[in-house]
Design goal:
- The protein contains 14 helices and 13 strands.
- It is an alpha/beta fold.
- It folds into two domains: about 80 residues; about 375 residues, Aldolase class I (TIM Barrel), CATH 3.20.20.
- The strands form three sheets. It has an eight-stranded mixed β-sheet. The protein has a three-stranded antiparallel β-sheet with strand order 2-3-4.
- Strand 3 and strand 4 form a beta hairpin.
- Helix 4 packs parallel to helix 5 and helix 9 packs across helix 10.
- The protein starts with a strand and ends in a 5-residue tail after the last helix.
Length: about 450
């Protein structure tokens, strides 16, 4: 029989119905008040006697609950199941992930950037070494992914193109899948460049926009002092038709509703509200280099409050809500043996926050990987199943212990490690539910219109 999942969340809505969410599966459903009452009866019956006969309504609802994992198999230990999958991915050698910074140079001068100004691109020698690294592991690979990073990676498009062509050749040689993503400031994301990225199997691009144009141009100025916002908007408008584009808005205490509202209006005017995924990022003093911004940064719990308000504004302005409390197997690459962040000199890091800091490298790609290196173990050592705070959390599947760098580098503990879901799950689920209902209505209206147009075309309606 089945038992109640430990990761269930049910919350009452104003209309008397419920939002049902399960963190283990990521299932979100709207449940009528009647079905919620039936759910309660099922739980009582199974708790009293698992062999209790259920009526037809209860049996039908139980099937739906089992499908969404709100009811789990009686012999399933959910934590042990998660732990198995977590460790499988941690030590899996059939998937390889590179985050590659082909250059650390950048055409912007952001006030909060933790990277020092650098120049130069990856040498042919390091490029050859990367290719050899993949080639040697190719026979055992099912998949290989590359994430292009920097600096501004589009300053080194020749390097991206050269490496991609060779990675694709290795994919054909060893029969593994290849895909890529890129993080860019968007200034060089021209239509020609976007078309090239599509050829290079880049599927996703993240672009940061720090407020409406008048503020973005101050927070993220070009090195030459010229504004960038309009150029980015123009580039993203084209790119969004070719790639999955996400816009990250870094939030600190200088933001308020007026500023966010102004940005959303500008994005709507650009026609981007139905073309991009927008999300709000917590700006953090990740390293000593950016400690000068620490006083303007939110703590996670405080950020979660303004995050709710800003996502409601997204709804009001016609954006779809793409941020979902989805289960994950690992928090990030730092928890995975076969993932590496490599800078132009071939130095290997375990975290984006560490790039460019020679004290944080775990070696060079030209040498054998040293899994006993202190900078590998520093972030890899933690696993959430040994932490009582994490084990007891009903949201553990969606954060898996949180950011390893926050824990190891900043010595954060307890709720300080939690993602914003821990603080704002209920209101965010309500926002997500409204967004999903709106999308369903739009879909139904479009299907209705398509049928009418088909009938007109067929001469059935004059």
């Amino acid at each position: 029989m089945s038992k109640l999942s430990r990761f269930n969340h049910f919350q009452l809505r104003e209309d008397g119905n419920y939002i049902a969410y399960n963190a283990f599966s990521g299932a979100v459903a709207l449940m009528t008040a009647e079905n919620y009452s039936i759910y309660g009866l099922i739980v009582k019956k199974l708790a009293g006697d698992p062999k209790t006969e259920l009526n037809e309504k209860e049996k039908e609802l139980l099937k739906q609950l089992e499908y969404g994992h709100f009811m789990a198999p009686d012999d399933l230990d959910e934590l042990e199941s998660m732990k198995f999958r977590h460790n499988w991915v941690r030590y899996d050698q059939t998937s390889l992930g590179f985050v590659i910074a082909p250059t650390m140079a950048c055409n912007m001068d952001c006030e909060y950037c933790y990277e020092e100004n650098k120049s130069g691109s990856m040498s042919p020698e390091i490029m050859d070494t990367l290719v050899d690294f993949v080639d040697k592991r190719g026979p055992s690979l099912r998949s290989f992914s590359a994430g292009w990073y920097g600096g501004e990676p589009l300053l080194a498009m020749d390097t991206i193109g050269s490496l991609t062509e060779r990675f694709l050749e290795l994919g054909e040689k060893h029969n593994f899948d290849y895909g890529a993503s890129i993080i860019s400031n968007g200034v060089l994301l021209t239509p020609d460049t976007t078309d090239k990225l599509v050829e290079y199997k880049v599927r996703n691009v993240q672009v940061t926009v720090d407020g409406p144009g008048r503020i973005h141009n101050i927070k993220r100025p070009l090195k030459n002092g010229k504004p960038s916002f309009d150029t980015i908007m123009k580039n993203v408008t084209y790119a969004a038709d070719k790639l999955t584009v996400s816009i990250r808005v870094n939030i600190d205490k200088s933001f308020d509703r007026e500023i966010v509202g102004e940005l959303l209006r500008e994005l709507v005017e650009a026609g981007l509200h139905e073309k991009v995924a927008l999300y709000f990022g917590l700006l953090e003093p990740a390293t000593q280099v950016c400690s000068n911004i620490s006083e303007s940064c939110y703590e996670t719990a405080d950020f979660s409050k303004v995050e709710i308000d800003y996502y409601r504004m997204l709804l009001q302005n016609g954006f779809s809500i793409t941020r979902l409390p989805s289960p994950t197997i690992t928090f990030c690459m730092a928890q995975v043996c076969n993932s590496f962040l490599i800078d132009p000199a071939g130095e290997i890091y375990r975290c984006f926050n560490h790039v460019g800091n020679p004290d944080k490298t775990m070696g060079n790609i030209r040498d054998d990987i040293d899994y006993q290196h202190r900078n590998f173990r520093h972030l890899f050592a933690f696993e959430p199943f040994s932490d009582e705070h994490c084990r007891a959390c009903s949201l553990m599947p969606i954060c898996m212990g949180g950011c390893p760098s926050r824990r190891a580098d900043r010595n954060l503990t307890g709720d300080q490690m939690c993602e914003t879901w821990k603080h704002n799950l209920e209101p965010m689920l309500e926002i997500i539910a409204v967004s999903k209902q709106r999308e369903q209505l739009k879909k139904a209206e479009k299907e209705k219109l398509d049928k009418q147009e088909a009938k007109v075309a067929a001469g059935e309606i004059k």
